[in-house]
Specification:
The structure is a homodimer. In chain A, strand 5 (about 80-85) and strand 6 form a beta hairpin. The first copy, chain A, is an alpha/beta fold. The longest helix of chain A is centred in the first third of the chain and has 11 residues, at about 35-45. The first copy, chain A, has a 9-stranded mixed β-sheet, with helices on both faces. In chain A, strands 2-10 form a two-stranded antiparallel ribbon. Chain A has a single domain, classed as Dihydrofolate Reductase, subunit A. The mean pLDDT of chain A is about 95. Chain A is built from 4 helices and 12 strands; from the N terminus they run E-E-H-E-H-E-E-E-H-E-H-E-E-E-E-E. The radius of gyration of chain A is 16 Å and the shape is globular. The interface of A and B includes residues 122, 147, 148 and 167 of A.
């Protein structure tokens, strides 16, 4: 059987976490502990993207930054596809997200979390690269980077390491090899 | 009031985790995904330590490696202090662990996990340095690095970054600044 040629869309996840892999205190709380250097990197990166994918909670707490972007908000409550300005609400149980993005002709899509969305995209082969900023804190609890149900060993390869500032924020770039 | 001079004992935590901050699949499963390079670094480091502190589950899965070391096994089931060869079982609810280690005259103590022990030591100012090896995998679930109950912002500073091999295992060294 001929294998369908893989789509050329590039899915790039951006994550900011603590040393212990936590991305926020709670799913409706916007992180106030990320560095200016990470913010600058993040904004510069987003400028090159055609669209972003976020979960409903992440959208709620970052609405002001996202409402002018092509934003795809994943929500199990969205009844199909519901549009508000540049923002569209999609229920991935009812809409094939990959095909939806293909139809939109987006080429570079940023995956911005939270943990359920990172997990969904990784499981569905919509996570080609991962930019991980590690801020120099330990939180001991909070929302984990990926909220998976099944333990799996997704293999990545490290592309680069960069120190973003003197206090010890680092930026790791990984390629998904799984 | 005069502040008690802080003890000179150095507590150093060693952690191996996935990119997403998971230290194992389950608390009774020994990680089979850590690199040889991390193992070599870890063994070399342990050789310089006077004692190790581990949780009961971690001890169970790494008994063969620990039984000849001065091992302090934290266990809420230990009725007080129970000795077996170089290994001693301590219930930190009944024994003041810090004082116990002082009495032993240990100067360098390795904290080896799991997540509850890392959290206990961090909360009780028994975690001065943190060596974190990040292996290039994402697991999406599993045991988190720290199993805390309360979200806190423990500040660390990055001392060094080292690539341990070509596949992308990195070793981060942090100092606790909190």
């Amino acid at each position: 059987m001929k294998k369908k040629k893989s789509s050329k869309i590039k899915y790039i996840a951006y994550v900011a976490s603590s040393i212990d892999g936590r991305i926020s205190k709670g799913s409706l709380i916007s992180p106030d502990w990320t560095s200016n250097e990470d913010w600058n990197f993040f904004q510069k990166s987003l400028a090159k993207m055609n669209a972003v994918v976020v979960g409903h909670n992440t959208y709620k707490v970052s609405k002001n930054h996202l409402k002018w972007r092509n934003s795809i908000v994943l929500s199990s409550k969205a009844n199909h596809e519901k549009r508000a300005s540049a923002v569209i609400f999609v229920n991935p149980q009812k809409t094939d997200l990959k095909k939806f993005i293909e139809r939109k002709k987006y080429k570079k899509v940023a995956i911005l979390g939270g943990g359920q969305v990172y997990d969904f995209c990784l499981r569905n082969k919509m996570l080609d690269e991962l930019f991980l900023t590690i801020e120099p804190y330990v939180f001991t609890t909070g929302v984990p980077m990926f909220s998976g149900a099944l333990f799996q060993k997704y293999k990545f390869s490290l592309q680069s390491i960069k120190r973003l500032n003197t206090k010890g924020t680092i930026l790791l770039r990984y390629k998904n090899e799984s």
